[in-house]
């Protein structure tokens, strides 16, 4: 089948920035964003290329003992369709959308086929958070496990998704199959390069069509019961899997982020009073925000239906927004939705493990004015008996962060009967608190943040770093405060938390601003005037915008990944999205890699020896990794190594 490759640039946004008020969400016309196609054809190239006065190309060698590579320049080419990594390094495509995963999977052939059964066994789309799990006692073999957050129209031979008509069920099934998680076995080959083990019994796809068990306080609860699952114990699938976590007992945590976009409740009166729908911004008219699956698959229509048991599918949205635990080493094991974590648009679940085996998992809720959370399991991990930890995630305390102007902060317990979470305030039980965690955090008095994305915990100090990616509503929809100090914060910032006594379970902490992202001081705009103060950063080193992915390596280098729309005028100096590295002590930041035009860089994992790094190129805009300008683009995991075989960054 022939096709117009320009169509491939079209993608659906992931709606990371859904505001509390659904009326401010983008229209379908915005989502399909035809202007992006023009830009990628070069329509704005002059504007982009003509706006880079004042940028230093890249940083030079510096005093930081941690950053031992030469920085790469920003990439301003509007047609850029490759990856550039620091001198002395190599970055190669390793695992792309459509690559075979499970036994019997056919090769990728998206022009010829819209076969959802094939997609079910192939790599999903929009690779996101990712972790490496070594086989016990081995350093040269492991499982790479990654999320597939959402899908792009070029999933289909037609490269289109038409939400104005009832969706064909086969297309919907393929989209559902392309969501979820991939588990792939990888090993170091004889030549020292990492390769996939294509026939591994561990290779596995988990998708929107994989049954999973509900566990924790909501398992079997009336709020989880639907006409399809009257017991409220088993959910079909996971979706919008964004960032991740790992447990001390070696399981993978995948986090369900923008699930509200997949549901609709058309009963206006019901919607207005149903906190579990309204506070999360479900659609209430037209179609659901993502893909209109409800037109082919009734469980995504959450309009209450009194003629059906349990109101039909009105509770189906309650079954998403959780942390899902997956044991990558047991391909037969059902994934488990752990409801004690609470329900919101969860970005990640970053582990901090104390000396005593007690732990915390830190999470952002990525929407404008939402909160930072942590979950502290009641029990402790005993490394000598890891099997005993298997159900530790089913009881514990969910907290939301309150950041005070003086640099102190408190973790507010979201516990029924505490902090105003009482029946008279609308929280009849702990189950209601967990399902409506956003409303509970509102009531408790948590601090509204500028779109919290990833958290990362320093491997020795246990300092917690959190990306606040951006918030154009700060100063209008949310008031300015010390922790969110810029009006119309288009470039975002990174905060640092220190728990009292470096104890993950502490309820008091101090915080400081690690950096404000944005333009270098003194940068001039096209008009020759200094760029506005709210767009100027405090970065010691290479500029970046919209920090999102965040991870520490073993040596304590902080790796920062960006996610901004690289054709927006405010991003013209930033160029293509980037992977950078920071020294937490000196705060120096150096750009390590730039991606192809249109992509986001996200997900980061290392081999045990630190000599291989994997990073994800999500939704490249032109034709990466083919980079021939004709082939439809594919989200792709990169394998990054040093030419001399050394440790990355060292
Ligand atoms: Fe899926 Fe907030 O990024
Ligand atoms: Ca994304
Ligand atoms: Ca993200
Ligand atoms: Ca983002």
UniProtKB/TrEMBL annotation:
Residues 1-21 are annotated as: Disordered. InterPro entries: 6-blade_b-propeller_TolB-like, PhoX, TAT_signal. It comes from the Bacteria. This is Transcriptional initiation protein Tat. SUPFAM superfamilies: NHL repeat. PROSITE patterns: TAT. Residues 1-18 have a biased composition (Basic and acidic residues). It holds the Pfam family PhoX.
């Amino acid at each position: 089948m022939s096709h117009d490759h320009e169509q491939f640039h079209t993608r659906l946004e992931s709606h990371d920035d859904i505001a509390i008020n659904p009326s401010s969400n983008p229209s379908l016309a915005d989502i399909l964003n035809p202007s992006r196609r023009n830009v990628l054809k070069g329509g704005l190239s002059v504007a982009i290329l003509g706006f880079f006065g004042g940028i230093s190309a890249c940083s030079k060698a510096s005093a930081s003992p941690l950053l031992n590579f030469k920085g790469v320049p920003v990439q301003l080419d509007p047609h850029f369709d490759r990856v550039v990594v620091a001198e002395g390094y190599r970055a190669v495509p390793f695992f792309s959308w459509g690559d075979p995963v499970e036994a019997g999977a056919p090769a990728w052939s998206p022009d010829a086929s819209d076969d959802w059964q094939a997609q079910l066994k192939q790599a999903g789309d929009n690779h996101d958070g990712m972790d490496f799990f070594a086989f016990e006692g081995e350093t040269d073999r492991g499982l790479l496990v990654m999320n597939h957050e959402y899908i792009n129209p070029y999933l289909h031979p037609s490269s289109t998704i038409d939400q104005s008509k009832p969706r064909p069920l086969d297309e919907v099934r393929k989209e559902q199959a392309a969501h979820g998680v991939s588990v792939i076995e990888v090993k170091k080959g004889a030549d020292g390069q990492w390769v996939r083990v294509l026939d591994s019994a561990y290779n596995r796809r988990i998708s929107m069509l994989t049954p999973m068990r509900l566990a924790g306080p909501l398992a079997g609860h009336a709020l989880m019961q639907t006409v399809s699952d009257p017991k409220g114990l088993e959910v079909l699938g996971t979706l919008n899997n964004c960032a991740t976590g790992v447990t001390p007992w070696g399981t993978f945590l995948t986090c369900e982020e923008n699930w509200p976009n997949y549901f609709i409740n058309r009963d206006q009166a019901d919607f207005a009073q149903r906190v579990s729908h309204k506070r999360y911004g479900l659609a209430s008219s037209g179609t659901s925000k993502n893909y209109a699956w409800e037109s082919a698959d009734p469980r995504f229509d959450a309009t209450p239906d009194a003629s059906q048991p349990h109101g039909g599918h009105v509770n189906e949205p309650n079954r998403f927004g959780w942390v899902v635990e997956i044991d990558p080493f047991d391909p037969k094991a059902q994934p488990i939705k752990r409801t004690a974590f609470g329900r919101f648009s969860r970005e990640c679940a970053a582990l901090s493990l104390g000396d005593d085996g007690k732990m915390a998992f830190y999470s952002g809720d990525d929407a404008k004015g939402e909160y930072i959370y942590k979950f502290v399991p009641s029990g402790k991990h005993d490394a000598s008996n890891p099997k005993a930890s298997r159900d530790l995630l089913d009881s514990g305390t969910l907290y939301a962060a309150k950041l005070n102007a003086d640099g102190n902060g408190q973790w507010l317990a979201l516990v029924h009967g505490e902090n105003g979470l009482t029946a008279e305030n609308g929280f009849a039980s702990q189950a209601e608190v967990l399902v409506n965690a956003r409303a509970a955090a509102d009531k408790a008095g948590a601090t509204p943040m500028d779109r919290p994305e990833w958290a990362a915990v320093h491997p020795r100090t246990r300092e917690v770093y959190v990306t606040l990616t951006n918030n154009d509503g700060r100063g209008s929809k949310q008031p300015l405060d010390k922790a969110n100090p810029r009006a119309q914060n288009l470039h975002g910032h990174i905060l640092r938390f220190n728990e009292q006594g470096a104890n993950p379970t502490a309820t008091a902490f101090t915080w400081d601003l690690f950096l404000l992202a944005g333009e270098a001081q003194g940068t001039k705009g096209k008009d020759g005037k200094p760029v506005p103060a709210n767009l100027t950063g405090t970065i010691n080193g290479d500029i970046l915008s919209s920090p999102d992915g965040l991870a520490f390596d073993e040596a304590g280098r902080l790796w920062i990944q960006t996610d901004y729309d690289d054709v927006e005028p405010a991003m013209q100096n930033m160029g293509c999205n980037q992977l950078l590295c920071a020294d937490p002590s000196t705060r120096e930041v150096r750009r390590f890699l730039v991606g192809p035009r249109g992509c986001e860089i996200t997900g980061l994992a290392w081999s045990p020896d630190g000599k291989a790094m994997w990073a994800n190129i999500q939704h490249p805009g032109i034709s990466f990794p083919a980079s021939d300008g004709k082939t439809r683009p594919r989200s792709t995991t990169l394998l990054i190594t040093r030419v001399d075989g050394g440790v990355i960054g060292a």
